[in-house]
Amino acid sequence: MAIIAAVNVGDDAALDHLLVEDFLDHNPVPGQPAGRVGFAYWAATARTAFAGLQGTIDDTLVDGDKLAGRTTWRGTHRGPFLGIAATGRTVEFTAFHIVRFAGGLAVEWWGTGDLLGALAQIGATIRPPA
Q1: Full domain range(s) for residue 79
Q2: What is the pLDDT of residues 50-83, one digit of tens each?
Q3: Are 73 and 92 in contact (CB under 8 A)?
C-alpha cells in the first residue's frame, strides 16, 4: 500500500497524492490535527518515537471501497512513546488498518496497534489504576 510506503520513507509530500485534504482518522493520537496534515503528524510522531520505522504489509482484504490490512511495524525506540523516554530497544508489533477510498484517494482510516505489546518490548511497567 502506497500510504505505508510513504510513512516508511518519511515522504509526507506523497500523502498529498494519496489522501484527501479533509482525511478522517478515526483513531488519532493525542494532539493530532485534523485532515491530511494530521496523518502526516501521526507519521512524524511515530518516526520520532521509533527510528527506522518500517511497516510491512502482511495481509490485505478488499471489500468494495475499503481495504483492510494487517501490518507489522518495526523500529528502534529513540524518542518518547506514550510517555516513555527512549530506551534504544527494538520493537516489532502488529497493527490493523481499514482504509476507505473514494476517487482513488484515501478518505477515512481506522487503525489499532498492539501498543501494550510495544510497551512491554521497551520494558514499560503497566500498573492498574489505584
Answers
A1: 2-121
A2: 999 999 999 999 999 999 999 999 999 999 998 8
A3: yes
